[in-house]
Amino acid sequence: MGKPPLRKYFDKIRFVFFTSFILCLSLLLLDYYMAVSGHGITFLFFNMNDAKQAHMPKPSNSSFNLNDTADCPRKSNHTNQNGVTSGASNIPRRIVENHTETIVPAAHGEVDKRVHMNSPPLDRDNVGVVTNVPTRNLDSCSGQYIYVYDLASRFNEDLLKGCHSLRKSIDMCLYMSNLGLGPKVIEKSKEKVLLKESWYATNQFSLEVIFHNTLKNYKCLTNDSSQASAIYVPYYAGLDVGQYLWGGFNVSIRDASPKELVKWLARQPEWKRMWGRDHFMVVGRIGWDFRRRTENNNDWGTKLMLLPEARNMSILLIESGSKDNEFPIPYPTYFHPSKDKEFFQWQKKMIKVSRPYLFSFAGASRHSSSSIRNEIIKQCQSSRSCKLLSCNDGHNYCNDPVHVTKVFQSSVFCLQPPGDSFTRRSTFDSILAGCIPVFFHPESAYNQYLWHLPRNGSSYSVYIPERDVREKRVMINEKLSKVPKSEVLEMRKEIISLIPRIIYRYPSSRSVTVEDAFGIAVKGILGRIEAVRRNITNVNYTIS
C-alpha cells in the first residue's frame, strides 16, 4: 500500500533540508580552509579587499574614551631584515591626495565661516583605513604590522649617549631619562594639583624618543618586512639638528646625517618595493627646522625634508608646514599614565576642579612688532579675571609642571597665541587641565592636528582673529565674558573627553587599553600608507 500523500510531502521537505544542510556545511568548511590558507574569502562571504573605507568614531560627549584593542598573536623584537627581495617598479615619484576642509570657528557673535586650507591629506575621520584584512582572517594584526629598521647607532642611540651636547643652553640628559619622559615629578604642595603617579618633567622636543620607545611595545611588530603594512625609520632627527641650530655650524655638518640616512635607505630592498612610500619617520621638532632651501651657512636648520627620499616618506611631527607628506601629532605633555584608571581619575578631577579665573596666559613676551603677545600680556595684567604666568622673570615657573597645571586648572579659558612658531606645547597642557584654548591664528591647531582634534574647532575652542587683538579692536576679557555659559559647559565637556587623545601613555606599559595619542597616530599612519598603496595600485592598473 502506498504512502499517504501527506507523508510523501514531508519526505520531500526532509530531503530538501538535508541536502541544503550538507551544501552549507561544505561551503563553511571550504570558507574556513580558504581563510586559514590566506587565499581570502569567497562564495557566500564579502571580501574585505573590496572595502572602500573604515571610519574612526568621533570622540563622544562622555567624559571617557575607551577603545578595546585586539591582542596580536605575533610579538617580535624588531631587527633588520636584509634578505627580502623585491623588484623595482615603474611607480610615479609623487602622489598628491585630495585636501580636506577645516572649519575655523568665527569670533564670538559672528557666523562660522568654512575656510579651505592646505591641510594634510587624511583627516581624523579617515584614520585607520585598513582594506586588506579578510573578514575571517585569524590574524588580528593583519594590515597593522609595522617593521622597524635597525639603523646604525649614530642615528639614535649615540645621540642619547651624547645628550650633554644636544642643546646649547640645556642639558638634555635629564630629559632623556625614563624612556624620554624626563625625571618623575614629586609634588611638594599640599594642594594636590597632580595625581600621585605618572607625572614627568617631559621636554617638549622629546617626542621622537617617546614614540620609538612606545613602538617597541607595539603589539603588531614584525621581523618580516614583507609582511609589514608600514616601515618605521627610527632616526632622531630633532635631537640631531638641535646640536647645530646655534653655534655657527656649516651646512655640510648639519646635513651629514640626513644625507647618509637617505643614501642607506635607498639601498634597502624594503625601500624599492614602493620607493619609500610605505616608510615613516617621527621627528620631535617643527617642520621649519628641516626645510633649509639654500646652502648659506647663515640659514636655519637642515634640508632633511627637502631631500627626494624624505619627500616620499610620511613624516609625523609636532608642527607642519602644510606639506602633503607631513602629519602633525600632539606635543608630549607631562602626564603619561600606565593604567586605564589613571586616565579616568584625571578626567574626573578636571570635571570637579574650581576655576576662579575667566582666562589665563602662560608665556613670555616677544620683541617682534608683529607678535600679539605683548598686547595679550597687557590685557591680562589689566584684568582681575586673568591669571598671568610670566616666563620672563627669573623664576621661570613655565617649566614647572605643577605651576603650569595649577594655572590652567584654575582658568576657564587659556590663551594660546603664536610664539616662535604657530603652535605651542601649551595648547595640550591646557587641554590636559580641562581649560578651553583660545586661538588667534588658524595654523595654531585647526589646520594641524586633524587626527587628534575635532574638525569643528568651535566645539572645543574659541577663535579671536590675531588682527583684532593687534589693532586693539577686541578686549579679550569682554569677548570671553560674553560666551554663554551653556556653550562654555559644552566646550569643557568636549575638552575633557579629548584628554586621552592628546597624551602619550608610559612607553613600556602593556596594560593600557584607552586609545591615546600614540595609538591614534599609528592608526593614522597605517591609513595614510594604505591610501597611498591603493593609489599606486590604481595608477599601475590604469597604465597597464
Automatic annotation (TrEMBL):
Residues 57-90 are annotated as: Disordered. The keyword Transferase applies. It comes from Glycine soja (Wild soybean). Pfam families: Exostosin_GT47. Residues 59-68, 78-89 have a biased composition (Polar residues). GO terms for molecular function: glycosyltransferase activity. One of its GO terms (cellular component) is Golgi membrane. The keyword Hydrolase does not apply. This is Putative xyloglucan galactosyltransferase GT14. Residues 141-476 form the Exostosin GT47 domain. Keywords: Glycosyltransferase, Golgi apparatus, Signal-anchor, Transferase, Transmembrane. It comes from the Eukaryota. It is a single-pass type II membrane protein. It is found in: Golgi apparatus membrane.
